[in-house]
Design a protein that fits this description.
heterodimer, A: mainly alpha, B: mainly beta, Glucose Oxidase, domain 1, 8-stranded mixed beta sheet
Chain lengths: 367, 115
């Protein structure tokens, strides 16, 4: 846990996460970060971020400075390659664990569902740790490139995750228009629309469930109502030609390749930075996807198991446990009510995140 | 026609090249993203990828978070939308309807206040 001094003062960001289950992953992120193998990050106390009970994020800038300094002198082609491999493995392992949970959740006994939840949560926590590090590591890599004499533009992704989403959304808009559903009409008549349009929206939601705000309870692309409203905001009264122009996407500047087989510090820095820049666009994608695609089916399974002991328990109640409680036992069901009341009283948070009263039930439906 | 009364310059970092002018639209909560006016200058804490579909309708971006390499940079560059980042407290400094000029090369934002 972060020292009290670091938690005092102004939060770095307010109300970023409200649900106890998601909040508890940030606590795990500090532990997970120690496994990454970075200098200056060998104990939980050295992790520079912490969430408080209100879901406010505190960043210990002195610890960021210590980490920055430790990393700067640590970069070599070998350590950069190790950093890249560990990072990529963490991301791929989370995707695999998510797919696995989605595939097997419905057939699991409670004990196995708990074990799989714990495993998935650990992988989410590790990717979250990288998410915190992404607040300063990419800039540090860029400075290291400049220090090494590199004058090329940063290695931005060829097409970012956001750009892919943008194209898919524009495709949905065009498909709906072709069926005589302008954004206005869709917005006005949803969900009483033609079966074809209904199907288009549902399929889009299934494809893009992974996109949305950091807070799981804040609506995102898993929710057809959200998608219909966003389509209206994005394409109502829009200049379609301008949209097309912007969707043609600027070409990434060409960068001179390193001599074949030559592993220089500059080429290693560029490779690692390229991965971080892509990760910046996908960090929420990884974890939100893990929740909606992998964790929700596990929670439903766990809730079904708990019903024998606690007949009044609803699947949404599990969102008010922390991950340790979720993967052991519910010893005090009344505590769930207290936490839920506290969450519902935090009207600032609910308003900023767009959480309606019925939202928790909606989010626990299988995408 | 209203005369320009004053202008104030705010300095940030240029994150995506180009210049744009338009009226500010400030994103303060999740609901605000559902009514983005066409041609506006979007003012926000940070641009997350899930808001990408809104970009083709806006003229420019003003972002509070300061790093050159962040979510906003990649998306804005890809779409050719001028962006200034690191304008601290932008959501307090600017109000819906304020006239803003965004310079995505220098990171400068000029707010023009009218009578």
């Amino acid at each position: 846990m972060m020292q009290p001094a670091a938690m005092s003062g102004q939060p770095y960001r307010r109300h970023i996460v409200g649900l106890p289950l998601q909040r508890s992953l940030f606590g795990q992120a500090a532990r997970a970060a120690t496994t990454i193998g970075l200098p200056g990050l060998t104990s939980e106390q050295e992790f520079p971020a912490q969430l408080d009970e209100n879901g406010d994020l505190f960043l210990d800038r002195s610890q960021v400075a210590v980490l920055t300094e430790a990393l700067r002198s640590w970069f070599t082609p070998e350590t950069l390659e190790q950093m890249h491999a560990t990072h990529a493995t963490a991301c791929h392992a989370l995707v695999d664990a998510t797919e696995n949970a989605a595939r097997v959740a419905a057939s699991l006994e409670s004990a196995s569902a708990r074990k799989l939840s714990e495993n998935l949560a650990n992988k989410m926590a590790l990717v979250l740790a990288y998410g915190i590090l992404s607040k300063f590591v990419p800039d540090l890599l860029l400075r290291a490139l400049a220090d090494a004499g590199d004058v090329e533009p940063p290695p931005f992704p060829e097409k970012s995750a956001g750009a892919e989403l943008m194209q898919d959304t524009f495709g949905l808009y065009k498909a709906c228009c072709a069926l005589d559903y302008t954004p206005q009409r869709l917005h006005r008549e949803w969900p009483r629309v033609s079966p074809k349009v209904f199907h288009l929206i549902r399929e889009f939601c299934k494809r893009q469930t992974v996109f949305g705000p950091l807070a799981w309870d804040s609506p995102g692309y898993e929710d057809p109502d959200y998608v219909v409203r966003l389509l209206h905001s994005a394409f109502d009264d829009v200049d379609v030609e301008q949209v097309r122009r912007r969707l043609s996407f600027a070409k990434r500047p060409a960068v001179a390749a390193s001599p074949a087989g030559m592993r220089t510090k500059v080429s290693a820095l560029r490779r690692v930075l390229g991965f971080w820049l892509d990760f910046l666009e996908r960090e929420t994608w990884y974890v939100r996807r893990a929740f909606y695609v992998g964790m929700v089916p596990l929670l439903q399974q766990l809730a079904a198991g708990y019903l024998q002991k606690i007949p009044t328990l609803q699947p949404v109640d599990l969102l008010f446990l922390d991950i340790r409680e979720l993967t052991t036992e519910i010893n005090d069901p009344a505590m769930i009510c207290k936490r839920r009341d506290r969450y519902m009283e935090n009207t600032d948070y609910l308003s900023v995140r767009g959480v309606e009263p019925s939202r928790l039930i909606t989010m626990m439906r299988n995408p | 026609m209203s005369a320009e009364k004053s202008a104030k310059i705010y300095s940030g970092l240029g994150a995506a090249p180009g210049r744009a002018s338009g009226r500010a639209y400030v994103i303060r909560n999740a609901e605000d993203v559902m009514a983005v006016p066409a041609g506006s200058i979007l003012v926000m804490r940070i641009l997350h990828p899930h808001l990408a579909p809104l970009l083709p309708r806006v003229a420019g971006l003003v972002v509070e978070e300061g790093a050159i390499l962040q979510h906003a940079t990649t998306l804005a560059r890809e779409c050719g939308i001028p962006a200034a980042v690191g304008i601290r407290d932008a959501r307090s400094l600017f109000h819906d309807g304020d006239l803003l000029d965004v310079d995505g090369y220098t990171g400068e934002v000029v707010a023009r206040y009218l009578d």
